[in-house]
Every structure is written in structure tokens, then in C-alpha cells.
Amino acid sequence: MSLREQLCEYGRRAVELGLVIGTSGNLSVRDGDRVAVTPSGAALDRLTPEMCPVVDTDGYLLEGELQPSSETPMHLAVYAATGAQAVVHTHSVFGTVVATTMTELPPVHYNALLLGGVVKVAEYATYGTAELAANVRAALAGKQAALMANHGGVTVGATLEQAFEATRLLEWLCEVYVRGLSVGKPAILTDEQLAAVVERSLNPPEFPRRPSP
Ligand SMILES: [Zn+2]
User: Fold this and answer.
1) Cα 192–111–144 angle (5° rounding)?
2) Active site residue: 5, 50, 63, 71, which one?
3) Taking the C-alpha atoms of 174, 39, 14 and 147 in order, what is their torsion angle to the nearest 10 degrees?
4) pLDDT digits (tens, 9 = 90+) for 54-83
5) From the CA of 167, how far away is ligand 1's center (Å)?
6) Distance 118 CA to ligand 1 centre (A)
7) Which residue, 175, 152, 172, is CA-closest to 87?
8) Burial environment of residue 113 by CB neighbours within 10 A (0 to 12, 13 to 18, 19 or more)
9) Which of 15, 154, 159, 168 is the most exposed place for a label (fewest CB within 10 A)?
10) Known catalytic residue: 71?
């Protein structure tokens, strides 16, 4: 699948799963210096490959008639600072709830380790600005996900599929936390408990075959 076809595919899935509504949210995927990004002002479930602009890593438009997403500077800042090959940004409900009420999402489930543990909330700045891009870059350091204060979430991956799955996981973790608050005080996993999970995942059990009689 071409870079632009991937944007159409995952744009459609993001809308189907309720992670974005209307024209909110944006995705990008890179190949070397070329970055395909969703266009500004277009519904993500109605994209065609031709609609998706291609920019270089300096932000110059290489292909496409439509303007790149206004959040393109943030995507490019993430590429410049990390080895990511894809970036997904949404205004998903539970992620945005956490991003408007907290300064970080504590690890209440061990799957948070897949995103780097604690998810930080990047300081608020106006959308599309270099300031927001810098804040997101700082919050993402060493992690697969960050939240953006009063705005939404952003995830990265080695592929667009990985970045997209990270967005689904981020939303799930935020939903568990927010729903947990309505029942009681969510217990937060300790560093020791998280270290034990890493240890366990590095040493999976091997199930021996039963010897034939
Ligand atoms: Zn946004």
C-alpha cells in the first residue's frame, strides 16, 4: 500500500472506531524525506490518495493540491526528534478528558508499558504552532504516546499500523482510568510491579511437549 493509500485506510478506521469526528485529527506516514499527511479540512473517512499532500521533512509541499493538515509542524517536529515513521493525532473522547483534567496518565494497567509507562500531558499551546510542536516533542521523549492539554492525544510508531494501534491503546487506557474514577480510586502500578512485567515479558514461559508414551 502506498503512503497515501495508508492514510485513506487508517483515516477510515479512525472514524469508524469513533476516534475522530468530522475533520478533527490527522495522520502522517513517512518514507525517508517524504511525508504523506492528511489534508486540512477534509473528513478522514472520505480521503482519496490524490487528496493527501506529500511534504518533505522541511515542510515544503512536494505533491498534492490540498494544503497539509494544520498540525503538520507538530508531525515534522516529532519526526525530527525521534525515529518514528508514522504519527497519529486525534481528539478522542477519553484521551481529551484526561488531557483537560490531569498532567499525566498514571499506569493503572501494565499495557501502559507499551506506550512507555506514564503518559505525559504536553503543556497547552495554540494548535498548529511551533510552540505546541515543541511541547509535544518534550512530552513524547522516550515514549510512544503523549496527551496534549485541552486538545487530544498523539502517538508514534515504526509503521502507521503501529501508531494507530498505539492511539487505540491510549484511548483504552484513558477510558479505563476515567471510568475507574467513577467507581473508586484507581490503584496505580508501582515501579516494582512494572519492572516485574518487563522481566516477565523478556522471559516468557516455555511449555514443554508431553513426552509420547
Ligand atoms: Zn488537534
Assistant:
1) 100
2) 71
3) -10
4) 999 999 999 999 999 999 999 999 999 999
5) 13
6) 21
7) 152
8) middle
9) 159
10) yes
